[in-house]
Amino acid sequence: MGMPPKTKTQAGAGDFEMMRPQAHTLAKVASDKTLFDAHCHYLNYLQQTEGVEALVGAMDKAGIGFAVLTGTAFKKMWVGADQPMPQHFLYDDGDLYHYSMTDGLLTNDLKMAYDKGKDFAVNRFAVMACGFNLGDFGIQAEVERALGQYPYVAIGEMTLQSDDINNVTIKGGNWSYFQPAIEKVIAVCGASSVNNKPKKKLPFVFVSDARSISTKPYRHDFEYLDQIEDVAQAMPDVKCLWVGAGVFMRGLWDGYAPILEGMLTKYANLYISFTPEICAGKLDGLSRAAALEIAGKHPQQCCLGTTIRGLFVTRPPHEFGGMSYAEECAALSSFADDVEAKYGTSAAAWLRYRTAATVYNFDLPSDPNAKSKAAMVETSMRVLGKELEDAKAAQMEQKKSMIAQDPNQFISGLAYGLPSSKRTNRGAPTPKTVLPSRVEKKWKSIDCHLHLLDFLQKSSGTVAALKAMDGCEVERAVVFGMPCCKKWCYYRPEQPLYYQDDNSPCYVYAYADQMVADAWLALGDKERERFAPCFASFDPTDLAAISHVRRMYNKYPKMWRAVGEVMCRHDDLTTMLLGKEIPRINHPALDSIYEFCMQVDLPILVHQNADRVGDNDAAWSFRGEVEDVLKRYPTLKLVWVHAGVSRRCSEPNHYEMIDMMLSKYPNLGVDFSWV
User: Which of 318, 352, 385 is the last residue of a domain?
Assistant: First the structure.
């Protein structure tokens, strides 16, 4: 740059007007075929980072020529002095809360580097602002104030609809909260001036899931896409960069690629970034092959960006299975190389840097390998303009056709997942209502875990349950209701049928116990003998919950066979509960209930994840909470429901831990339901 370093007191917003890539910077990116990282997350969810110099060194090694930096709009709460510092935002012990200081931490580090004469602070980076609460209708003034303090090149990365993040965020986060604020943010992005000063139109950079985390076939319609369309339609002349194109690890994704292509065709101001997870083929939502095809057809709407947060030299904790910064960049580079091999140098040039530079309004260097935009449009393999509507219609037809299938097949599909046109669920054979026995000898079977009620507190009734038991050769069943109910929020067009169907909350539903009692009492003596009714519709974090337990037991003292299923640590359900206090098996509110169970000689069935969500460290972080109860109440008959396993909570050698626990504690039992 040839500029003398300035002292910290001399540096200000005016000194950073050059905080945009110099022409030679992007020219070097083009000539060296390095990458433009469209969204580099400088800080993690604890607002920690390895720093500017570590990032620059890692970029040089990984072939990243330029990066637009963003902070992290949330901070993870560290709950409890006796708990380890959370290493992942999905740890359910602490909520996320909106953290407005993230932008200041990022820009301060860059200013300090600039003060020290480090030219890379202005040559290699640009910055976008993200420290805003999308639930705040006064967000417009916050954004305008931020733009007056620093030359941000975009607003983002903002999180719109993400069940995993919204569910652990204080005050939640949903479209009813977000839409008014988002419209105000996009209005600021599209304004020609802010604070009486002229400005360029800024892009809006966001991450938002295309669908819920539900794996139920009836939710196979990418129900969150309408919100993405609302963003793109808000101001057609504002560029909108959709980070990761809406895909993530869970959910059902058949038919998504053509819908995504249709959206790119329909909205010229909509751009997508391919993340390392997509480029490495780690996500079912968008295969690597499908992503390559989209990049070839729509190169001027596709770019590349990393997802790791704050760690640029150190590997992330191995138990979560994430890639290192170097591995992420290698996945992006390999993807760009494959685009070049399949679709030519021009498509690759747009993917590597030109699309990102266009999104952020940077001047493009001359590049003989890159065709002009007009030429690219003329030669690209555009899909028809109505493809989006056609693809959506095909999804709805698939949804309707499921009900027209054999009823038994449809019912089993609700439990196990119906096969797509290409494959069955997780590659398994087409499920049947009753699987044939592998042995000739008939055994007396007892279903140890049967919910008479679902998450809407609905039921097919005991007659249907008995018929199903007969069909499955089940002689008896341990039955209970459902201690919580799923809320139908006014901004959702369809009522959720299952707790994972959207990110609306769940609440304790105490009347479920009464409905179980009424159903059992309505049976004849012969049918009653086949059911062992249980009750547990109370909040396990409520010290007064013992009153509900005593009340229900005293009302029907000869009927109840156990207390349960008590819902404690549960990977998704825990984060959806309105109370937000973490229910755990050794919560003080349960002590009086354990004592009551011993007094009246009732077993208690508890759902308690053995480990944190998503890790593979063989440590079983929450096993100690189970042991705490077993040690303090050695005569308590405790049944560990699902053997401590949940959807995102299991270890490869989980069975060894269960074997040890059963050998060590004679008062412990487990059920293998669902497992």
Answer: 385
CATH at 653: 3.20.20
Predicted confidence (pLDDT) at residue 448 exceeds the cutoff of 90: yes
| Alpha carbons 118 and 51: distance in angstroms, whole number | 13
Helix (H) or strand (E) segment spanning residue 363:
none
Higher pLDDT, 374 or 349: 349
Are 373 and 479 found together in one domain? no
The count of residues in the chain is 675
420 inside domain: no
Q: What is the pLDDT of residue 9?
A: 37
DSSP string for residues in 247-295: --SSS--TTHHHHHHHHHHH-TTEEEEE-HHHHTT--SSS-HHHHHHHH
Q: Are residues 277 and 348 in the same domain?
A: yes
64 in any annotated domain: yes
Q: Exposed e or buried b for every residue in 141-163, given b needs 16+ CB within 10 A?
A: ebbeebbeebbbbbbbbbbbbbb
Are residues 200 and 336 both part of a single domain?
yes
Q: Given a cut of 70, is residue 545 above it in pLDDT?
A: yes
The most confident of 136-145, 187-196, 377-386, 559-568, by mean pLDDT: 559-568
Helices 256-266 + 387-403 axis angle, to 10: 150
Using the 3D structure, point to which of 368, 385, 402 is the last residue of a domain: 385
Tokens 């690219």 -> residue = 376
Tell me how far apart the alpha carbons of residues 205 and 177 are, in angstroms, rounded to a whole number: 18
Together in a domain, 335 and 466: no
Which of these, 246, 243, 97, lies nearest to 172 by C-alpha position? 97
Q: Identify the residue with better confidence: 428 or 53.
A: 53
* Count of domains observed in the chain: 2
- CA-closest candidate to residue 300, choices 366, 244, 371: 371
> In whole angstroms, what is the distance from residue 648 CA to residue 6 CA?
51
Flag whether 410 is in a domain: no
Read off the pLDDT of residues 217-252 as tens digits, 9 standing for 90 and up. 777 679 889 889 999 999 999 999 999 999 998 888
Q: Are residues 442 and 377 in the same domain?
A: no
Domain with 509, as residue range(s), is 436-670
Calpha distance 152→671 (Å, rounded)? 55
**How high is the pLDDT of residue 580?**
67
Contacts 24+ apart (CB under 8 A), 436-441: none
